[in-house]
Every structure is written in C-alpha cells, then in structure tokens.
Amino acid sequence: MKRGIFISLLIVLLSGTFLQNCKHEIPTPVVFSNDCDPDTIYFVNQVLPVIQSSCAMSGCHDHKSRREGVELTSYSKIMKTGGVTAFNSGGSMLYEVLISTHNRMPPPPASLTISQIQNIKNWIDQGALNNECLGCDTSNTTYISRISNVISTNCVGCHNSSLAEKGVLLETYSEVKDIVNDGRLQDVLDGTNGYSVMPPYPAVLTDCSKNQIRHWIETGAPQN
Fold this sequence. Notes:
- By secondary structure, the chain is mainly alpha-helical.
- The chain has 2 domains: 31-133, no CATH class; 143-218, no CATH class.
- 44% of the residues lie in helices and 3% in strands.
- It is built from 9 helices and 2 strands; from the N terminus they run H-E-H-H-H-H-E-H-H-H-H.
- The protein has helices at residues 2-21, 43-54, 75-81, 93-99, 114-125, 143-154, 173-181, 184-190, 207-218; strands at residues 31-33, 131-133.
- Strands 1-2 form a two-stranded parallel ribbon.
- Helix 2 (43-54) crosses helix 5 (114-125), helix 2 (43-54) crosses helix 6 and helix 6 (143-154) crosses helix 9 (207-218).
- The longest helix has 20 residues, at 2-21.
- The chain is globular and about 45 Å long.
C-alpha cells in the first residue's frame, strides 16, 4: 500500500515537472474585420510589414540573429520580446526606441517615417491587438490614399536613400513611376520575367494590396 502511494506521488511530481518544462507558446488568434475602421490601426496590414521590412532582418531582429534577445518576426514574438505594453505606448520599449534621441532603432538614416511611427504608437494605444482588415476596394484606389502607403510600409525599408537594394529607390512618386514604366513593379508583384516576388517572405504583400497596385498600374499609375 505504501509503495503504491509513493509511486502515485512520484508520478504526480514528475508530471508537474514535465509540464513546467514543456510549455508551448499558444498563438494569439488574429481578429479579422471585413468592415474596416479608418481610425483603427490593423497589425497585420499596417504594423507587421513595417517591422518585418525595417527591423526583422538578418543581423538585427530576425529569428536567427535576435539582437539583445529581441525577435520581431511575428505578433507573438513582438509581444513577448519587444517590450509592448498594451494601451501604453509610452511604457513600451518597441515605441520608445523608435523615437529615442540616443539609441534610435532602426538607426538613422534608416529610421521609420513619422507616419509609420505614429501608426505603431496608435496600434499600441488601441490595445496592441493581433488584428487584420480584410476589406479590399480596388475601384477607388489612388496613389496618395493607398499605393504610397503600401509601398512605404512594405518596400521603403530596403529601397531608400541609405540602402537602395538593387539600386532601386521607392521614396517618391517619380521613383515608383520609374519601375512602373519599365514593367518591374508588375514583375515583382507576380514573380515574372526572371524577377523574384517582392517583398520577400515573410514580409509578403496581401492579395488585396497586390490587386490594388495592379488596378492602379492599369489605370496609368497616376499621382492622384
């Protein structure tokens, strides 16, 4: 009888130890919205692409490098290692380093734009949700209202005056129009004519963004 009790207690203790040492990260489900609020910042659409293209790169905060223990490749990693405090951008390391005057990240001149920083601030102050806007309107797509934001969010991190990957700059309308005119923008959207799909994984464009850019190109890529 005593031996049986001892074995039972041992099993309980070992089970507790196993559970403590085998904690799996539970992914936070994405909150989808079809009727998208223009005053809401959506993590999947507006925050993650900026962070992935400007911060989660090799040598910085990707899965392999994890500088200073910070990995910024996904919502769970950003929340776990990026020092994000929901509803409190002022108390969030992720936002503080973006506006720091001494240790700004990403370091100048590759700093984020004022608009991108404001979006991240607003996202945190709105609760730092893992949310995504699914609504997609291509009929009223304009360069100023949509295209410039998509390119700034997803591409300028690599194609700016300090980096200019492949010699391509995408900071101004005229620079974007240049790669529209020679067909390269369409090619990198589709991965055609020898070009790889850009931006590369994991910072891929949504189908909605691709369709909006295609529609804009088809209408003559105006600066509207």
